[in-house]
Amino acid sequence: MCTLNVCGLKSKIMGPDFEEFITYFDIVCLTETKLGNTDEIRIDNFTLFVKNRKRSKINSGGVAVLVKNKYISFINVHDTDDNFSLCFTMNEKKLGFKLICRVAYIPPENTRYSKIEMFDILETRYLELYQKDVEFCLTGDFNARTASSQDIDN
Question: Residues in domain Endonuclease/exonuclease/phosphatase (predicted)?
């Protein structure tokens, strides 16, 4: 599994590099897809699940999950009551353990779409879903600021 901020999915799929890169992964979580409700995206050998930002004058934000078609029967995508995350579960029998994944895109601070409550919502949803013997993966672009610290760990 990998997570990418694509900063516009339509522009990424026009070039060969993106499609070649994603073939190395079974599940690809995408942030800042910038898709509209009428956009149709097709990527060979993958199924795309999309959550677009609502109430946007231009296509911005958005999250998506790409799943290789051969694994689609092991994935269940769940609708969320927010407009910045997408939740999916993977078949326990296939993995050997329960796994809940959530991909989120939190807009940068001081933009018209940012709200500090987004972090509270993520925490609340995690606590609601928390169960003993269940693994949880939260991934995405949180536009976190690390000040002078590196945001990549070698």
Answer: 2-144
Query: Residue 53: how many CA atoms within 13 Å on its side-chain side?
Result: 21
Q: Which domain holds residue 6?
A: 2-141
Q: What is the domain-level CATH number for residue 37? A: 3.60.10.10
Separation between Cα atoms, residue 147 and residue 66, nearest integer Å: 32
Look over the chain and give the mean of its residue pLDDT values, rounded to a whole number: 86
What is the DSSP track for 76-107? EEE--SSSSEEEEEE-HHHHSSEEEEEEEEPP
Q: Is residue 147 part of a domain?
A: no
User: What is the pTM assigned to this prediction?
Assistant: 0.86
Q: How many CB atoms lie within 10 A of CB 27?
A: 20
The residue that leads in pLDDT, 119 or 2, is 2
